[in-house]
Amino acid sequence: MHRRPFPTLLLVVLAGTAAVASAQSLTVTLDGVAPTPYATVSGHSGDGYFSNDVVGGLELTITAQSGLPVNYPTTFEAFCVELAQDIRLPSTGNLYSVVAPADASSGVGTGLGANIPCAGIGGARASNLEILYAHIFGATYNPSVALGTADETEAFQLAVWKLSQDDGFDLTTPGSTSTGFWISSVGGGTATSTLTEAQTLLNWVEANPNGPKMDLVDLHSSTLQDLLVPTASSFTAIPEAANYAQVLGLAVLGVALLRKRRRRELVARS
Description:
Layout: H1 18-21, E1 24-45, E2 48-67, E3 75-80, E4 91-99, H2 123-137, H3 143-146, H4 150-165, E5 181-187, H5 191-207, E6 216-220, E7 227-230, H6 244-269
Antiparallel strand pairs: 1-2, 1-4, 1-5, 2-3, 3-7, 4-6, 6-7
């Protein structure tokens, strides 16, 4: 995700079509990384070695949108797909173009991105990521619910890295060449269960190549990590905290009116 203290990040946003995605840009603030404390990982990606990269979801706030509006929520959590670039805290005013998921990490052809073609991760890897997202989130993107524990969140990020950086599914065994992605060590957080759960996710994707998919787009930057998120329609509508009481009050009022109406109907019938 980001280098110590925060490793590189990649942001992918889901959009219905590449035509819609290419017409929009978002300005994003990186607010933090969840969970805390988080695990860190070391390993290989392409022909490069990375050390103590933070594993977790990126907490983001959209401060501006341009182009065709798709009405993304103001705040949401995303996952990194690129290790060749950085984004660090504090980080504001990050401009991203919304592009097709196959174009994620396009333009990066050296260093830790050497195992990703310069044109991007490509359709096969994007398809695997769409299957992974659908497997975990179904039709509604809500990481705080679907990934309810620290190790689940960390495991999901590791699976996203593997599927975007590599064509294989083995997270810990080095391949025969230096072009794969694999983890050599994990520290902090819930290291053992994180690796086990991540490998379970990868095994499921490998066993279900024709599984359901969640539409994805990529938030792309030529200088910052790209990130993955769903289309706006896939986000759960969660009321702002200040509106919780109002929503609850309306619900209680609705129940009271319904009960009063039923009492009147019973009296009329008697």
